Amino acid sequence: GTTQDLTSSANWTSSSPGAASVSNEAGKRGLITANGAGSTTITGSFAGLSSTATVTVSQAAVPSDRAFVTNFGSDTLAVIDTVGNRVLTSIPVGSGPRGVAVHPSAGRAYVANSNSNTVSVIDIAGNAPVATVNVGSGPWGVAVHPAANRVYVANSLSGTLSVIDTTGNTVVATVVVGSAPRGVAVNAASNLVYVTNLAANTVSVVNTLDNTLAGVINVGLGPLEVAVNSGANQIYVANSFSGILSVINGASNAVTPLPVGSNAQGVAVHPAANRAYLTLGSTGSLVVIDTANNSVVTTIPVESDPRGVAVQPASNRVFVANTGSNTVSVVDSTTNSLIATIPGLAAPTDIDVIP
Questions:
Q1: Architecture of domain 66-353
Q2: Rounded to an integer, what distance in angstroms lies between the CA atom of residue 342 and that of residue 16?
Q3: Cα 202–Cα 203–Cα 204 angle in degrees, nearest 5
Q4: pTM of the full predicted structure?
């Protein structure tokens, strides 16, 4: 008998593309790409005949001591060793990366590329891009809802929120929010997403169960970034034009204003320590807030034009992306002291860590 290689002629399908997909593109037919942990059945069909094979994808070990920083100046995502406080590598992403969010259990990071209208999906075990998702215009902030396998992206130029299914890296819904949306945060306990609308001075509340607008909350002037304390059901909004941190009660949507200083940029929460951290771009400082009584504890000098901020609870460290000085500041949250400055970034704008 004779044999014939039909790989380039057959039609290929995958029963679970979230685990692995298979290409029908010319020159790549039959090429399998691993997308996430799980199993899938690959089927090849030709001239009425078919054959199947089961492919199992195992999740590579994800390091626990990493931070990820968007380099707006070089169109890359920097990977930082949070033990040695050094840049390990930089991964090419899209044009104008702004927000970044990590999905540790899936081994992925998501980067919003504001100039290319895409989200880059990064394998954080292998430090490599694995997919690109087209979203709205001017994507800025990004947040992950791990339990729902969803990523939420604020499209600053189209006034919408893109909802991405992380199993297939596809947009499954687009929700109209307010004008110039910037920051996004998920309250997994209440299944609500909070989106800051910079030009409308509001926060849109989106129900994650049906992707509908659940409410609109008036806050300060120029709301930029937002963070959630799910356990306390409190939402914190940095208002860049009014020098106010808006503290929202998630149960009633009542707002408490807290004066913090001019040009508020990023905000992050350390729930176990009852602390929130706010960056002030114009003064190069990090404001420490006691979330139990909504008061300012202290202000820590960092470097030039701090923007994104992230908390690593396991190490009691706070990481600040300083856009103006191309550095990341590392703060000890137990002593409120600056303990390291990491060089080698390029206009870093946002940061997220593996907790």
A1: 7 Propeller (2.130)
A2: 41
A3: 120
A4: 0.86
